[in-house]
Amino acid sequence: MFKNHITGLGIISIILAIIGLILLFSSASFGISLGNSWLTGQVDGIADTSNYVMVMETYTNAFLITGGILFAAGLVTAILTYFTALFLGVKAPPEQEK
User: Fold this and answer.
1) pLDDT tens across 15-40, in order?
2) Closest to 29 (Cα-Cα) out of 56, 69, 67
């Protein structure tokens, strides 16, 4: 595997993990914000409280699940990239081997 491929995979895994963590920790505020925008879109801005709570929890859970998936994907990619580089070794591109 080339060194630039390993570097690229490392960067991708870090980005995925950071985005996942942001979604995990900010899911409540994102859910409340989207729930409020749903409420303002209702007729006269009025809706049943249980419907509002259900919509807000649904949005929050969607962000939690998405953040968890992205964080796990970033973590798995980082681990696989590390062990691939460890076991196969880091090779320089053919034009740099001279």
Assistant:
1) 999 999 999 999 999 999 999 999 99
2) 56
Q: What is each CA distance from 4 to 7, 8, 91, in whole angstroms?
A: 5, 6, 9
pTM: 0.81
- List all residues 6 or more positions away from 6 whose beta carbon is below 8 Å from its beta carbon: 81, 84, 85, 90
Q: List Cβ neighbours of 42 (8 Å cut-off, separation of 6 or more).
A: none
73: closest CA among 2, 14, 6, 26?
Answer: 14
Token digits of residue 7: 């570097």
